[in-house]
Design goal:
heterodimer; A: about 260 residues; three-stranded antiparallel beta sheet; 6 helices; B: about 325 residues; alpha+beta; five-stranded antiparallel beta sheet
Amino acid sequence: MRDVAVELGGRPVLRGIDLDVGWGEVLALLGANGSGKSTLVRTLLGLVPRVRGTASLFGEHVEDFGDWQRVGFVPQRASATSGVPATVAEVVAAGRLSRRRPFVPLRRADRDAIATALEVVDLSHRARDGVSTLSGGQQQRVLIARALAGEPDLLVLDEPTAGVDLVSQQVLADALAHLVGRGVTVLLVAHELGPLAGLVARTVVMRDGRTAYDGPAIDLFTDAAAHHHERNEHPHLDHTPTVASPLDPTTRSRP
Amino acid sequence: MSVLAYDFVVRALLAALFTGLAAPAVGTYLVQRRLALMGDGIGHVAVTGVALGLLTGTAPLLTAVVVAVLGAGAIELIRARGRTSGDVALALLFYGGIAGGVLLTGLAGQSAAVLNRYLFGSISSISTGEVAMTVLLAAGVLLVAVGLAPQLFGVAQDEEFARVAGLRVGAYNLLVSVLAAVTVTVAMRTVGLLLVSALMVIPVATAQQVTRSFRATLLAAMAIGTLAALGGVSVSVFVRVAPGATIVLLALGGYLVAYPVGVLLRRHARIRRPFEDPAEAWALERDHDVDHTTADEDHGHQHGPDCGHPAVRHGDHVDYVHDGHRHAPHGSHYDEH
């Protein structure tokens, strides 16, 4: 993204954003509510119009981009349900839409990808259950499996851990580790990293629509956010508001 | 089978069959997008189309299709673009449609009785040409609604995800609106413009009482819609009742039967569902030392195998369900789990 600015309803939400995500990088976008981190990824994906600047995916302007099967997106949603019942497998099957032609039924490759995606998030045994019978954390895992089913090269997750139980966070961390091992680029929006901390190599902190920090993951976002009471190596950071003011002089950043 | 010897009965049954199949198929996507009343809105707009046909002397079915499609497009546009009070904008369109219809009918010098045929259906007076057109349009609707099911499902389920999957979300949404408009006009002679939404929505509501997959809901809704439509026409052959109203009431009756079944099924599923991965969750809770909440209630007794409180295995220990809480013995007190 180059010099990107975004306004929503006339209000500036993003200003002067320059961000490059390299191949195979695992990048976490952190920031307080309203700092623009969700807007940033949605702009990158072309879901939000820009007032200036350019956004490119795989070297192509997002407006001209057509290779959507290379992108997996996990939107910020409270649930995976809609007005009509659907099974876990059906929701995950929607992840294959970027690779399917209209009027052509599911092929073998599609079915395999769906099964694999369900395995990765540890929900194979619930494939035929209705999504509405799953807990919030499990529904989040369904949405992640849906993105994985498209076998993307770039995975964009918007707050995948918000309001998700510890078990599901751990499953998510394992699933991401599996993807990172395959060389998938991960762009993650999060409030706190929790079990994901070990995977994230680079963090970008947003504040008031600008990038306030860009560099390696620092302790502040990782250990303190995970609430590891018994392994508390940095007691003075315990329960610090995780991303309130990362660049304040008190922060022990290790660039 | 002597009644089948009457041509009008065969025509009516044929129209009912295709209407009963197509209306719930489109209705499923409307319900999924939580736009259950959209069919009703399009129906209102189509009244103007019918009146336009009466005024100009062209086939009302044709003008109704055109006006309904335009109206559906307008509704979709308002829905997609309009950020402020979309429902008020829709209401304006609905009432504009029905008022325009009544006005134009009057201008055409036709009586309200003529308009009534379209408002409440008059399947027994349907002509061969109209049946052919009904069958053709309904078949087209079915082909698209079933053939593009994965795409339409994906778009209705999560628009943003569908957009990032490279689907042209706006085009698919417009497609559903157009399908709805065509269905409304197809069903206009069967159940009537004011009742058509019922045939689109009630079978879906009935089906989802007992189904848990989208596919099953779609197919069951189509089956229920067909049964209701054929049943309603059959009843009206023998008894002097309005076929459209009979079809809708039959469908509603089906819903009333399915609802308690659905309540029982959901209750059963809820009770049977195990507490989530107890062993795993417990291990994590222990490792991270989270959720250590002491139960404040005064325990008059010790929980145990004979205390009468339901016992639930929770990882490496047993919880007791006490006043809706799960209590786990922890030394001298109980923890809330």
